[in-house]
């Protein structure tokens, strides 16, 4: 029996090779379309990644340029201290003795806000941003005369040199009351030993004992945990991530409350988003060991004048960010250095306060400083 030829067979002459070739061509076309679709998706993802990488830093940089102009503290001064360097100085109130406040490690002068506001009702109170922090932009090294070769940048020796030139340039009346917290206590001690005639009273709030860096566990915590975390914060600021976290409410300023102005809240956000500020904060922590060594040496060769009274203020609560044994180590060394170097010093313990007391329990510090200043003023008036 004969079969009828199909239309397909008539068209190709019944050649099976033609059918195979056509199927192959169809498969190749499908593969090409699949590859094109895959490449298109990869390109789209690449564009998104590039936007994520480059857009946030660019927007952050543009915002920082604008904020640097509008968030400068009202009433503050940009004081030229020489060497191409200017320092942001804020003084409030009138009277003597002047109180000079030096902030904790890596922090701008805003941290003293509550204390400065209260004490300025009694006398003149000044705060300043150390070089590189806040609104004291670090000068280019080629604009200096080489002082960094004597004292390394971001070390106590250089900071004290800057502070001394600031006192002279701003014509701050001496002798004054010098108050420091953490790194500020190292600066205060160094300054008081070198320029003893300029400091009537030295107040150390939660001081850093210079011998703490001789402990291996402390060094390990400081350089393998704390400093790397600050370096990560600096990188996050440089990439614009900090600003995004602030916008999302996942990162908040340290100083807040009903009495804190909106300008100050915005300044703190500016600091968190500013990689230059964060870089200087990293440097101050990284070189803290060197700063402590400088203070140790100056304490040996230039004892503090008996005319300068010393007070130490500490809390009885440990720092929750420090392991318990390191908290105990710091407390032990604080007591030791006070007994050895300043045996006549007054030690004030604030119940329920910790390392952040200057902005979490400021009234306790203001109370002591107010009493000290009032007594000095009363004594001056009676003479």
TrEMBL record:
InterPro entries: AB_hydrolase_1, AB_hydrolase_fold. Residues 1-35 are annotated as: Disordered. It comes from the Eukaryota. Residues 106-223 form the AB hydrolase-1 domain. It holds the Pfam family Abhydrolase_1. Residues 7-22 have a biased composition (Basic and acidic residues). This is AB hydrolase-1 domain-containing protein. It comes from Megalops atlanticus.
């Amino acid at each position: 029996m004969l079969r009828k030829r199909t239309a397909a067979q008539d068209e190709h002459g019944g050649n099976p090779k033609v059918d195979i070739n056509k199927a192959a061509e169809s498969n190749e076309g499908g593969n090409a379309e699949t590859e094109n679709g895959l490449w298109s998706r990869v390109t789209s993802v690449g564009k998104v990644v590039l936007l994520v990488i480059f857009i946030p830093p660019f927007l952050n940089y543009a915002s920082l340029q604008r904020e640097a102009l509008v968030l400068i503290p009202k009433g503050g001064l940009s004081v030229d201290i020489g060497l191409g360097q200017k320092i942001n100085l804020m003084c409030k109130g009138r009277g003597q003795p002047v109180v000079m406040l030096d902030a904790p490690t890596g922090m701008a002068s805003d941290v003293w806000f509550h204390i400065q506001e209260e004490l300025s009702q009694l006398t003149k109170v000044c705060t300043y941003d150390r070089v590189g922090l806040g609104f004291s932009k670090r000068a280019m090294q080629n604009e200096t005369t080489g002082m960094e070769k004597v004292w390394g940048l971001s070390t106590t020796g250089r900071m004290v040199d800057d502070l001394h030139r600031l006192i002279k340039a701003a014509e701050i009346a001496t002798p004054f009351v010098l108050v420091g917290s953490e790194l500020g206590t190292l600066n205060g001690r160094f300054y008081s030993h070198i320029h003893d005639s300029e400091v009537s009273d030295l107040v150390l709030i939660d001081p850093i004992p210079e011998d703490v860096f001789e402990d291996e566990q402390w060094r390990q915590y400081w350089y393998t945990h704390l400093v790397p975390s600050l370096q990560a914060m600096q990188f996050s600021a440089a990439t614009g991530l900090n600003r995004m976290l602030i916008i999302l409410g996942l990162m908040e300023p340290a100083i807040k409350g009903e009495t804190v102005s909106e300008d100050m809240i915005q300044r703190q956000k500016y600091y968190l988003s500013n990689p230059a500020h964060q870089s200087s904060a990293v440097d101050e922590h990284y070189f803290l060991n060197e700063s402590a060594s400088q203070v140790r040496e100056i304490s040996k060769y230039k004892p503090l004048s008996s005319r300068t009274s010393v007070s130490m203020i500490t809390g009885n609560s440990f720092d929750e960010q420090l392991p318990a044994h390191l908290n105990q180590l710091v407390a032990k060394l604080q007591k030791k250095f006070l007994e050895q170097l300043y045996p006549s010093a007054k030690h004030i313990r604030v119940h329920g306060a910790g390392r952040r007391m200057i902005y979490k329990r400021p009234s306790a510090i203001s109370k002591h400083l107010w009493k000290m200043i009032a007594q000095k003023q009363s004594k001056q008036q009676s003479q």
